[in-house]
Automatic annotation (TrEMBL):
SUPFAM superfamilies given in the database record: Bacterial exopeptidase dimerisation domain, Zn-dependent exopeptidases
Keywords associated with the record: Aminopeptidase, Cytoplasm, Hydrolase, Metal-binding, Metalloprotease, Protease, Zinc
GO molecular function: metallopeptidase activity; tripeptide aminopeptidase activity; zinc ion binding
Keyword set includes Methyltransferase: no
Top-level taxonomic group: Bacteria
Residues engaged in binding Zn(2+) 2: D141, E176, H379
The protein's name in its UniProt record: Peptidase T
Similarity remark: Belongs to the peptidase M20B family.
Amino acid sequence: MEAILDRFLRYARIDTQSDPNSDSTPSTEKQWVLAKMLFEELKNIGLQDVTLDDRGYIMATLPSNIEKEVPTIGFVSHYDTSPDFTATGVNPRIIENYDGKDILLNEEENIVLSPDYFEDLLLYKGQTLIVTDGTTLLGADDKAGVTEIVSAMEHLLAHPEIKHGRIRIGFTPDEEIGRGAHHFDVKSFGASWAYTVDGSQIGELEYENFNAAMAKITARGKSVHPGLAKNKMINAIGIITDLASRLPKNEVPEKTSDREGFFHVYKLEGSIELATMELIIRDHDKSLFEKRKQLLKDLVEAINKERPGEVVLEMKDQYYNMKEKVEPVYHIVEIAEEAMKSLGIQPIIKPIRGGTDGSQLSYMGLPCPNIFAGGHNFHGKYEYVPLESMEKAVEVIVKICELTAKKF
Ligand SMILES: [Zn+2]
């Protein structure tokens, strides 16, 4: 069996950055390199029905080793990394027996990973940390998850005394650009439920996420010489900023937490003739989510009535809170919770302030909570993952398989 650390490093060094500006799947050619490697590897370690489809989706089966009928369960993660930060030339470094002090990632550029800023580091004093060299992200999101799933399957294959039902695993491209679930064939995956292994800190267990919508508002104005503009000029910039100023001031990402929703204006562009504003709308609560969307419609309508010029709103839903799909089968959360507790891990159950592939999969018929993969500071040069958290994640996956067989 390959050591967890070696497996992770091998995956992490392969650049699999996805690209939101590409329409193909996978969005980047380079993701095929790891996809093909995983495809061969899953066959080599002894999994069955290993498939790699023409869009880069990988699936495999660990057959049941018991007589009785047990639901098929699945584990899912993504092998692409975020387009937010470069993944070319990932050169991970190992910090053994972490002393709780600053870690100099890059001497030349004086890039320091410090517990003064990232307090989570102190949770891992004495452990082995895998960090970057300060020039790339690490890609623990989600190569840690991929590593953990493969290593857990390898462990189960080597230990037939651990009894389990049929297990399916799935690896996707393009999760980081929101498309990981888009071409996921839930039917051929054929599991009753699954877990994405894509969370952060050890213990994380998540089955609530935002309801999400995006909106683009376009204002059209009329350009006239400023010296002769009275009662003639219509300034599209003025219209858009007026609209932006009417959004609730305290309901923004930087002022909300837990289950508080928000409007997030992330782009304003404009000239006299044409101005646009792009924003996202987020709320865990379905009815509050609908109210937020209605508020935006009302504001646009009001501005259209009050001012000259034309404002057009385009809005579309992106994903929904998986809670609605998971609560009716809540035992799938309880099994994960029990698995963690039996291994001495305190479950941290909290709502995700974002979405996961699991939220989309849940609405596609595969209820899919998220469990920790162990990494921190995703999507940037300060990303790190403690080896011990990865080892625990492997144990949790194994335990979930075992408990599911026991309970059904
Ligand atoms: Zn991820």
